[in-house]
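Next up, sample data.

:::
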Amino acid sequence: MTVIRRFKSLLVLKACLSLAGAMAYADAQHATAYSHGHNHILIINSYHSGFSWTRIQDDAFVDEVRSQFPDTQFFIEFMDVKRINGTAFQNSFAQMLAQKYKGIDFGLIMTTDDVALQFAQSYATKLWDEHTPILASGINHSPSIDPNLHPGTSGIIESQGGTETISLALRQNPETNQFVVIADTTEVGMEIGRQIEEQARSISMLPIVRTPACTKDELLQFIDQFDSRTTFLLALYVVDKEVSFIDPKILADEISARAKGPVYIFNDIYSESPGVVGGHLNSGTEQGRAAGKIALRLMNGERFEDLPERTNPAKNWIFSHPALRRFGIPASTLPEGSIVNWKPNNFITRNPLLTALLLLGLSAQTLLIVYLLLNIIKRQAVTKDLSKSEAQLRLLIDHSPLAISISDDTGKMVMMNRKSTLLLGY
């Protein structure tokens, strides 16, 4: 009986060890799922390659990853969903990826903006290993990160700095009597426009006008009707109703040139225009860099479960000096640490160190000149006093009742008073 009990105990122990080993193996497989293909990363972008917001996110992500893993290979795709989208298109896109990257083992899928993320989650089990992590950057809808579609998803939620920017706009422009929110009618444009409207209503009772679905030319004509007491809030306008893509800088230049009131922005893709005032801006560079930092943690062996579900990178206060001057907004109203672009560029601002050295040299030269002048004045005073004393002495000697004469070492007479000349006949 003792032998049988021991045998049963060994069987139970063996079973427990096997179960523990299986669980440990499963955990190891999940935790290190990234390692076997860590040098291959697929980047799927929602929009076209010419969209600057997409480009700067990708560049920042790649730079961050390569800072520690320089041999990483990146495969970059663009869905271009502002031009075409839908189930049929996404199925075709998935088939293209499957054929194009057949045999390539990806250690990570990186996506930019919501549509690419939803696509990557939906087609995860069909295109790559089910444990392959998915990262996302520039997400506007929090529900887009759906653990039911793919549990191994983390990303960068993009929140708008509307409350801070609009509060500042009201302080800087107290005569504002209404807001105009400029946003296109794409899914993302409508979502960002909605967020800006909600944030404006949370701090102000002023009327809010939303731009209609229109072409870019119609948008500019729409803006013409508002006076200088209108503050414009440029949320997102990258494609018009005719599906024409619009360069962010050109759009911001044209809107600010036509708008009679100040234009505030929420995304740094519009900060390249000197005509917009500025604001508390989302940065594509910061979002891409933040996603890259998450990727590095995975590549360095951290478990996906230990990573933050989402992060929100810091925004930057960025303003335009010409726009501030145009609307009479003093620099003293800007938040601490603000970046002000297009300040007047002169010799002093271009060469601060050289300017400091020149000022130091001029100061030293001025002090030397003052010192020399004081010395000259002092010597002149001493010379004047000596001359006066000499004249008094000569007068005293000349009228002395005694005969006084002075000769040099050779016996030559150099001075005689009147008495001497009378006695000696000189």
Observations:
- Confidence is low (pLDDT under 50) at residues 1-8, 10-37.
- The chain has 14 helices and 15 strands.
- The radius of gyration is 41 Å.
